Amino acid sequence: MTQSFFIDVERTDEGYTFSYQRNNASHRQRTGLSEDELRGQTPRDLLGNDQGAVVAENYRRCVEQGETIEYEERLELPGGTSHWQTKLTPIIDSGQVTQIVGVARDITEQKEQEQKLQQIHRQFETVMETMSAAVFLKDVDGEYTVMNQACRELFDVGDKDITGLTDYNIFPPDVAEKAKKDDQRVIENGEVIEIEETVPTATGNTVRLTRKSPVYDDGEVVALCGVSTDITEQKRREQDLERLKDQFELAVEGADLGVWDWDMTTDRLEFNEQWAEMLGYSREELEFSFDTWERLVHPDDLPSATDAIEAHIEGDAGLYSHEIRMQTKQGDPKWILTAGRVVDRNDEMAATRFAGVHIDINDRKQAEEELKRTTQFLQETQEVATVGGWEVSLRSERMQWSDELYRIHGLPPDAGPTPEEAIEFYHPDDRDSIREAFDRLTTDGESYELELRIVTADDEVRWVRTHGEPRYEDDEIVAVHGTLQDITERKEREQELQRQNSRLDEFASVVSHDLRNPLDVAQGRATILEQQVGEEFQQHLDPIRNSLERIESIVEDTLTLARQGETVGDMGTIPATDFVGECWAGVETADATLDVDVGFTVRGDRKRLQHVFENLFRNAVEHGGEDVTVWVGQAGEDCLYVEDNGSGIPADDRETVFEPGQTSATDGTGFGLTIVKRIAEAHGWDVTVTDGRNSGARFEFNTATPIDE
C-alpha cells in the first residue's frame, strides 16, 4: 500500500519554503504522524536540521526541474526508521510550482531481504552439505552441475570436478537410459515425479526413493533438481511384512493367533480365546455374532473393512486382508491385522462360510507412525525457506531455534526466548491449544501437529503449522523437538476458495430452485398453444412471455451476484456526472428525476460500479414510484451517497435488505441490493442504509480513501 502526502511550495527571496498540508491514512499509520501533527510543518521542523535539509533539497530539485522525480531515502520518523521509494510530482499553476504531491512506498522489508539473501544462501549450502539425502542438479542436457556431499559419496565422485558428468559416466547403460527417460518427463512436461529405483553403488545396490522436480527461469525449464533418500531398510521391512502375511494366511486354531469362523447363513461368528484376550476380554464375555465384531471395530475403519470383505466375497480380491483398529475392553484402540478367505460356497456359489485370523500389529503400527513422524520432521526441516526447527531439553530447559524460526517470529537471531515466551507468541485464542499440546508432549510423549496463528514481534498475525515430537533415552523423555512452518499464504488461498465456493453454491441453489416455477408455467402454456391454435388461446402468450422474462431476470441477477464477489478488474478514475448519467440512461426510469453533484470523481472498476448505480436507480423507481427524485453526491471527503424521496426502508429491515432474495417488489429477484453490497465490498467500501431527505432511502458508501474533487 502506498503512502501519499501533499506539500505547499512558497517561493522566497532565499529560495523556497516547503510546508506539509495533509497525508493519507496509510501514510499516517506507517509514519506515526497524524494529519494535524503534519500540517504546516517544514521538513526541518519535522525531521531535524540534517535530515530535513536532505529532504528539502529533493523538494527543491523537483520544483526547479518542474517534472516528476523518483529516489530512495532513509527516514527516522515517529513510526520508526524506514527505507522509502519516493516519487514527487509538481503541480504547476500559471507557470509556477505551487504544490508537490508525494507518493512513497515502504521498501524496508525489501532492503532487509536483500541483506539476508546472502545469509540464507550460506545457510542453504550448509544444510545441503549436512543432509543425509543425496541432492543433485542437472542441466537440460543431463549434465550434473551441483552435488551435495551425500550425493558425491553415493556416486563415489569424491572431490572430483563434475563438469560434463552424466549418468552414463556413473551407471551401467540400462540404468543410465532409464534415468534419462525419467529426466525427460520432468524437463519436457514440467512434471514432478517420485520413483523407487535400485541404484548400484561402490558398496552394492541400494533402493532409493528419488523425487525429481523442474527448475524454472522466466517460465522455462532450465534444470532438474533431484532428492534421493535411501529406503533399502524400509523396503526390506515391507517385504518381511508381506512374507509374514503369507505365512499366517492359513493359520490354524491353536496357534498364538486370534482365529475366527463366520457362518454367513446364521451370522454366528465363533472365535478362540486369543481373539478375545487380544482385546482384553475373556471368551465368555463376548457374544458369538457378527454384530460383536462390528461393534468393536473403530467407526472410522468399519466402512473400509466391510468394503474389503464384500470385495473378497464377490471374487474381486484373492485374499481378504485388512488393517483395522478395534476397541479394547479398557476403551483404547488397538491395531489388528484381520485376514481370511471364503472357505464354503453353496450350489449357487454364494459364500456361506468365511474364516480367518486376527494378528496384533499394534506395536508395528506405532513404530510405523513414529517412523512417519520422524521422516516428516526431517523432510520439513530441510525446507529452509519456509520451515524452522526447534528443540527443548527437559533437563536444562534450554530451547534452541533455527534461524528461520527467528525470522518467522520477527525476532533477531540472538533473542533466545524461553519455552513459555515462545508460547506467548501464539494468538490469544490459540494459546491454550498449543500449551495443552506441549504439556502432553513433555509429560506423556504425545506428539502433535496443529495449524494455529502466531502474532509476530511486529504484531502481524501469521498462520503456522506446528509439529512436536519427544526424544527418548532409556525409555525417558529427555527432550522434545519439532518444526514450525509459515502457511499463511495457503490459509488465505483456502479462505478465498471457501468464499468463492459459497458464492457458487448460492448461484447453483438459485438456478436449481427459483427457475423451476417460471419454467413450469412457460412449458404448460406452450403445451396448450401447441394443442389448440384458436384465437381464444392467444391469452396464454402473455403469461408465457412474463415467465420467460422472469427467468431471464433471475438468471442475469444470479450470475451477476455470483461474479461480483471476485476481485475487481481495472481500477480507474471515473468522472461522476457523465458516468452516473450513463447508468441512469440504462434503466427504465419513467418520469423519475436525477440530480447529480457536479465536479467530483470516484475511483473504481467502471463495469462493476455500473451495476451498483443501475441497481440503486432501479430500486428507487420500483419502490419510490415513477416520479421519484434521485440524488447522487458526496458527503465528506470519503463518502458517496445515492438518495431518493420515495417511501424509504424501515429501520428494522436495514440489516436484512442486502441479503439474497430480500425484496418487496412483486416482479423483483431480491438480488439487486445484494449485488450492490458485494461490489462495494470488492472495492473495499462499506455500505449502509439510513433515512434520506423527505423520509426516502439513502445509501452511503464509505470509500476508505478520499473522493477526488
Mean pLDDT: 82
Share of helix, binned: 25-40%
Which class of secondary structure composition applies to the elements?
alpha+beta
Profile the largest sheet: 5 strands, antiparallel
Looking at how many chains there are and whether they match, the oligomeric state comes to: single chain
What is the overall number of helices? 21
Distance between the termini: 22 Å
Proportion of residues in β-strands: 25-35%
Would you count the extended β strands for me?
Answer: 27
Low-confidence segments, given as residue ranges, are none
Task: Record the SSE blueprint.
Layout (H helix, E strand, L loop, with lengths): L2 E10 L2 E9 L1 H7 L3 H4 L4 H5 L1 H17 L3 E9 L2 E14 L2 E11 L1 H23 L3 E6 L4 E4 L1 H6 L18 H17 L3 E9 L2 E14 L2 E11 L1 H16 L10 E6 L4 E4 L1 H5 L12 H7 L5 H12 L6 E8 L5 E13 L5 E10 L1 H20 L5 E7 L5 E3 L1 H7 L9 H6 L6 H14 L3 E8 L5 E13 L2 E11 L1 H27 L1 H16 L9 H23 L8 E4 H10 L7 E4 L4 E4 L1 H19 L4 E6 L4 E6 L27 H11 L3 E6 L5 E6 L7
Helix pairs in contact: 16-18, 17-18, 19-20, 20-21
